[in-house]
Design goal:
Helix 1 (about 1-65) packs antiparallel against helix 3 (about 105-129). About 90% of the residues lie in helices and about 0% in strands. By secondary structure, the chain is mostly helical.
Amino acid sequence: MAISDSLGQLAATLSSMVRTRLELAAVELEEEFAHFSSSLIWSLTALFFAGIAILLVILTVVAVFWDTPNRYTVLLTLITVFGLLAVGIALRLRTQFRNKPGLLFHSLAELKKDASVFDRGDKSQKEQG
């Protein structure tokens, strides 16, 4: 029985070590994600200013054709189309972020289950012995 107890303790120790290493990896990956997010925000800011430039080009075109009777229709159509696109994309992104599990969530859960199985095995063997 001493060998099986030792093997059980060894397995529990190894499982604990792996879990600790994965938790550390998760922290490191989250820090990398924060760095990536910062880069993404700056990229989106650049795209925003590009969008403003495009908008000014559109307004220039509208100003050139200001004397036509359809200028308000064109402006309202463009506002509606771009506004709906922005809302649709924002809603999709919000849904994706809300439904995303934590980083390495499934791996950590499996390792915790493994550790609990080993812990139960050690307790039952100690109760029998």
